[in-house]
Amino acid sequence: MNPLGAAQLALWDDADPACAPRSGVAPAQAQAERAAPAAVASVPCFRHPRADREIRLTRAVVAYEFTRAHRRSIGMVVGPEGLSVRAPRWVSVPDVEAALRSKERWICTKLLDWRQRQQAPTARIEWRDGAELPFLGETLRVVLDPTRSGVQRAGDGSPELHVGLPRDADAAQIRDGVQSWLQRQARVLFEARVAHFAAQLGVTVKRVSLSSARTRWGSASADGGIRLHWRLVHFGPRVVDYVVAHELAHLREMNHSPRFWEVVRTVMPDFDEPRAALKRLVVPD
Fold first, then answer.
1. pLDDT (tens digit, 9 = 90+) per residue, 108-118?
2. Residue 221 and residue 176 in one domain
3. Contacts of 122 (CB under 8 A, 6+ apart)
4. Which domain holds residue 203?
5. Minimal CB count within 10 Å: which of 133, 210, 226, 266?
């Protein structure tokens, strides 16, 4: 989920030399690409860090990780590193490439989605007394107050976060103090919302942990582990609930098939709105 693993999608500008044919590319394909350099430069290029094959689709040049595996069909995964393909030993490379071309729209859409997550804009916060930042759909004002800490309501009803720091605290101290508070709030909130949706979905969650990943808002593992990005607390409750429901649905469907989205819809019928909002939101930093 977007924005934001440790492994990042490798991105190249359209005319970057990394898009030129490599040693792992079939000779005929390399010759065709050398004969039409303008065509190569006219489409975006994506390269998996462990790429050993490359294909030029209509919409992009994609260098992908290719693995032979004991399986019945061709498998494709697009993640933060790029495209990975696994195929049975009896399937020929031309057949693999034909399968990739048949899934071109899906592959390119996913790769571009990861690019956008990597390039997601951030709103810079000036860490000082009086700084403002979003918190669960409201604007939270930072107040340096060595006598108390926690959220208080100002005279006009607006929320203020009192941070137990002196007035002359530097920007790093203020940032660390505020983000530490945000992470504590995130853990409490996430555990409550995970418990809420896990009961509705009938799934068992073994652990809930906070994430600071740069490329995804959450992840789920088959052993019942859920990771959620702590910065989700900057956004409204509906967005938080969507990400929680999304990850918990993976404990029933470890894919993004139509069946997966139906699972999400059982607990959040109108998830399309917060899902779309999540792609538009700006991450404060």
1. 998 988 777 66
2. yes
3. 282, 283, 284, 285
4. 132-284
5. 266
